[in-house]
Design goal:
This protein has 129 residues and is an all-alpha fold. The protein is built from six helices and no strands.
Length: 129
């Protein structure tokens, strides 16, 4: 795999004006999921994680980036785990709110976004060391 054209590198080169839209999209999905059952709430949380991880690159000075990025990644991993527990809880898992294929697609897509966010975060931590 050619690292020069990887998704993580492309994400790190995003314009700072794009990053707030990731945060808006994530917040919109999480908020809409409170009122509608067919909204991918896990993708919303993962999009928030990706947006905040990319925002640190633009808004945090390099000498604080290690600390802030570590706190950011841990916080969003805990938040993602809490949402995962709520979605996968047995009382909500079999409720007729969303079909199983939708929930699995939501989980699969969000796991992919979380992995990409972790890769971006780890690269920023390595650059700060």
């Amino acid at each position: 795999m050619n690292n020069e054209h990887s998704l993580v590198d492309r994400l790190q080169q995003l314009s700072p004006s794009i990053v707030p839209w990731l945060l808006v999209a994530g917040l919109t999905m999480v908020t809409a999921a409170q009122f509608a059952t067919h909204v991918p709430v896990m993708v919303g949380v993962a999009t928030l994680m990706l947006g905040s991880t990319l925002a640190i690159r633009d808004r945090v000075p390099p000498q604080l980036r290690l600390l802030v990025m570590t706190i950011n990644l841990v916080t969003y991993l805990v938040l993602y785990t809490l949402f995962l527990g709520a979605v996968m809880h047995r009382t909500t898992l079999w409720m007729p709110v969303a079909p199983p294929w939708f929930r699995l697609t939501d989980l699969g897509s969000s796991i992919w976004l979380v992995v990409v966010s972790l890769q971006v975060g780890v690269r920023q931590i390595q650059a700060a060391i």
